[in-house]
Amino acid sequence: MSKKNRLVLGIETSCDETGIAIYSDKGLLADTLYSQVAMHAEYGGVVPELASRDHVRKIIPLVKQCLAQAKLNTSELSGVAYTAGPGLVGALFAGASVARSLAYAWQIPSIGVHHMEGHLLAPMLEATPPSFPFIALLVSGGHTQLIHVKKIGDYQLMGESLDDAAGEAFDKTAKLLNLGYPGGPALARCAEGGDPERFTFPRPMTNRAGLDFSFSGLKTFALTTSQQHELDPQTRADIARAFEDAVADTLAIKCKRALQQSGLSTLVVAGGVSANKRLRHTLNSMCDEQKATVFYPRHEFCTDNGAMIAYAGYQRLLAGEHDELSIQVRPRWPLSELQPPQLS
Ligand code: KG4
Ligand code: ZN
Questions:
Q1: Helices H, strands E: what count in the chain?
Q2: Which among 96, 98, 138 is positioned nearest to 118, based on CA atoms?
Q3: How far apart are the first and last CA of the chain?
Q4: Which of 86, 170, 244, 269 has the fewest CB atoms within 10 Å around its CB?
């Protein structure tokens, strides 16, 4: 990437949102998002084939929209970053093929970005970004991980979910409470009217050492509780509240442990579930007690977006990293396999 006016177009298509953004030396210049939620809602969850087809339809119009927002011509771009994994294979391919082809046509480098590295670095887009090293809690629909982050690309996994991810547990619990799709925000809304004293759910795996998680039991607990009571609106809200409190407490207990174990005092929380207000409240209290500082992305950058991919790609392109001409995606891709940015 040339040394002056570096401008990176970011393309996110790993699941059900098409996110396009432009990140530059001056920060974020443009950011657009098309959510497929309404289309998938009819089916109660993401339909992979429909997701891929919709990305194909939306990428180019959103790229044009972004260029217009930033008042830029394609000739001014210096690199293209896209999500290469993990995610739905067809959806990833849609983004990767367009990104790789645009970069080829424009004769600029491209880089495949790890979706979770994007999430992890999303708080760097804020006015007061965290500084390295820190503990990252990544909580999305597919991942729940605690990571010791020494610098960009140096990610040591400290603990992760052995079954459902936190977001997945939210989605499944919302489904069994008939709260619709997408489940996380729906359950959070429902829980607002819930009585926190009525039901108490377990805090899984907190009474033993270690930093791993297990959330599938909470979903079963919600199911059993819902079968034992008439599922009127208040009971539904009370169950949602008990579930949300259990997830938030469990995550906070493990974050506290990770901070103590590492001796670090900075926590970064990212991924879709980091938008959850109760989780933020619980983590803020824990961090106050621990004299630690916690950082989150702004609300719209918690869930999937193009800005985090443009940012992560910018960092790697800046170091001289770039792709080969072949188009490759990695639906499964452990974050700990990443290396710090390096010349390729
Ligand atoms: O990061 P993300 O957009 O996509 C993945 O990489 O998976 O995360 C989506 C997940 C979904 O499971 C969704 O239900 C959850 O994040 N989520 C929430 C909230 N907003 C999104 N969960 C709880 N409370 C929320 N406010
Ligand atoms: Zn995501």
A1: 10, 10
A2: 138
A3: 13
A4: 86
Residue 103 alpha carbon to ligand 1 centre in Å? 31
What CA–CA distance (Å, rounded) separates 73 from 8? 12
Judge if the beta carbon of residue 140 lies within 6 A of ligand 1: yes
Phi, psi of 174 (to 5 degrees): -60, -40
Quote the strand ranges of 56-133, DSSP E.
Answer: 79-85, 110-114
**Ligand 1 site-directed mutation target among 15, 164, 273, most atoms within 8 Å of CB:** 273
Q: Per residue in 253-297, pLDDT tens?
A: 999 999 999 999 999 999 999 999 999 999 999 999 999 999 999
> What's the CA angle centered on 141, arms 31 and 92, to 5 degrees?
60
* 247 touches 166 (CB < 8 A): yes
Q: For every residue of 237-251, which 3-state class applies, written as one string?
A: HHHHHHHHHHHHHHH
The dihedral of CA 25, 19, 88, 221: what is its sign?
A: positive
**73 alpha carbon to ligand 1 midpoint, in Å?**
34
Are β-strands 293-295 and 266-270 bridged in parallel, bridged antiparallel, or unpaired?
A: parallel
